[in-house]
Design goal:
Layout: E1 3-7, E2 10-13, E3 18-25, E4 33-39, E5 46-51, E6 58-60, E7 68-73, E8 78-83, E9 92-99, E10 108-109, E11 113-118
């Protein structure tokens, strides 16, 4: 059974950087499309970014474009999210999610990691 475990969250000042990791176990990362989502208090979970199985295609929400970078290392079964120029509005629980293709919903989710950006 495939499992996802996020790590790397924490507290950072506005303008700072933070890196998140999503480790895949029980399966092969190379067979999965991976996305990052976030959920802020009182708000719906929203899409942040996604990467294709090969890593050749990435998508970003407009709110993070130019500041966040998603990447993957299939040999290490890990996906990364580098977040630069962080803003207080980026404060949320960040989740990684997996699916077999773009034609099905994300159906495997991690437990989430908290990112807090202070003023």
């Amino acid at each position: 059974q495939v499992q996802l475990v996020e790590s790397g969250g924490g507290l950072v000042q506005a303008g700072g950087s933070l890196g998140l990791s999503c480790a895949v176990s029980g399966g092969t990362l190379g067979s999965l499309n991976i996305g990052w989502f976030r959920e802020a208090p009182g708000k719906k979970r929203e899409f942040v970014t996604a990467i294709s199985r090969s890593g050749g295609i990435t998508r970003y929400a407009d709110s993070v474009k130019g500041r966040f970078t998603i990447s993957r290392d299939n040999a290490k079964n890990t996906v990364y999210l580098l977040m630069n120029s962080l803003k207080p509005d980026d404060t949320a629980v960040y989740y990684c999610a997996a699916r077999l293709s773009d034609y099905v919903p994300y159906n495997i989710w991690g437990q989430g990691t908290q990112v807090t950006v202070s003023f």
